[in-house]
Write a structure and sequence with these properties.
Mean pLDDT: 95
Number of helices: 14
Number of domains: 2
Order of helices and strands: EEEHEEHEHEHHEHEHEHEHHHHHH
Bound molecules: flavin mononucleotide
Number of strands: 11
Radius of gyration: 20 Å
Shape: globular
Low-confidence stretches: none
CATH class of the largest domain: Alpha Beta
CATH architecture of the largest domain: Alpha-Beta Barrel
CATH topology of the largest domain: TIM Barrel
CATH superfamily of the largest domain: Aldolase class I
Largest sheet: 9 strands, parallel
């Protein structure tokens, strides 16, 4: 039977988590190619969108650019003003299959104005934002939360969100104060899965096929999201699929890792999103695990153009062939 999330057909229960400065279109497409079931844009300010008459033609809003090939894809909004949420959703919804509300970003810039994870201190506000957004869209509206501000209140928060008509909740198993410290609390996510009737997407610390399976098993969730591992290793989605389908621990070859960088570059070029600093980082990330010399990695970081990065990688290809 075809797999559906909030009525959206997805080819895998493993989604790419939204990540600021990482999950722009080229990276999202790559993760889709490698098996991610759903992608979500990084968070974008509802207020900024609401104040811009046509964000899709404005380069400043490149993070919400999407193409048909990417579908299904969600857009993640953050903010405080319900009027802005309503306007923003009306402007962007035509390009997306799902709307997601950020209730988990711990950055001071957001929490100091009551957005992001600050909403966890006042879950009625999350419910009210969801209700407002639902007045202008028929698409699924979802919330991405952490367990609480400084202690686990996830079940109470999730139940309030559920009553707003929210279609699904993504739960990162840490508090806002924890940021990324310690281990994600999968047991707490299980509490949410048991407490609500809507779909829960479990999130936190998937790094392999084994841990992906363990997360679903321990939380009872049907869906999960992968963040930091995907950032360094977009092949994680293929690894997970092979683990589930064939029970094997698969790893990409060195050549596949190097090719992944060139595929990423092609997407960046195609969509006019080439940034040298980003390319260097991706070259380092995607070739993780290949035994290059330290100097080889320094050469990548010192590269002044795509051509120079390419030359470094082609040198590596000879070394690892
Ligand atoms: C660089 C970076 C940027 C992130 N940006 C966002 C964001 O824009 N919106 C959001 O909801 N979560 C954001 N997150 C959190 C991730 O979506 C995810 O919840 C978190 O990394 C835990 O999952 P993981 O253990 O698989 O990394 C970000 C995480 C990282 C590492």
């Amino acid at each position: 039977m075809a797999l559906e999330f909030c009525g959206i057909r997805v080819k895998s229960p493993f989604f790419l988590a939204p990540m600021a400065a990482v999950t722009a279109l080229p990276f999202r497409l790559m993760c889709k190619d490698l098996g991610a079931g759903l992608t979500i844009t990084e968070q974008i300010s509802a207020t900024q969108i609401a104040r811009n008459p046509d964000p899709f033609t404005n380069n400043e809003f490149f993070t919400i650019k999407t193409v048909a090939q990417e579908k299904p894809v969600g857009v993640q909004l953050f903010g405080v003003d319900e009027g802005d949420f309503i306007e923003a959703v009306q402007i962007v919804q035509k390009d997306f299959e799902l709307i997601n509300l950020n209730c988990g970003c711990p950055a001071h810039r957001e929490t100091s104005v009551g957005a992001g994870a600050a909403l966890l201190k006042n879950p009625e506000k999350i419910a009210s934002h969801i209700e407002a957004i639902k007045t202008v869209t028929n698409k699924p509206v979802t919330a991405k939360i952490r367990l609480g501000w400084n202690h686990d209140e996830s079940v109470r928060i999730a139940k309030i969100i559920e009553r707003s008509g929210c279609d699904a909740i993504m739960v990162h198993g840490r508090t806002a104060e924890q940021k990324y410290m310690g281990k994600a609390n999968w047991n707490a996510i299980r509490g949410v899965v048991d407490a609500v009737g809507i779909e829960v997407v479990a999130n936190g610390d998937v790094t392999s096929g084994e841990s992906a399976e363990a997360l679903l098993k321990e939380t009872g969730a049907k869906f999960a999201m992968v963040g930091r591992e995907a950032m360094k290793n977009p092949f994680i989605f293929t690894e997970i699929k092979k683990f589930f389908d064939e029970g094997v621990s698969w790893e990409p070859s060195n050549a596949e890792k190097i090719n992944a960088f060139f595929e990423y570059y092609d997407y960046c070029e195609k969509f006019n999103m080439v940034k040298l600093a980003d390319l260097k980082l991706k070259a380092i990330h995607f070739t993780r695990g290949i035994e290059f010399t330290k100097q080889a990695r320094v050469n990548i970081l010192n590269a002044g153009s795509f051509e120079e990065i390419k030359n470094c990688l082609q040198e590596f290809e000879k070394i690892v062939a």
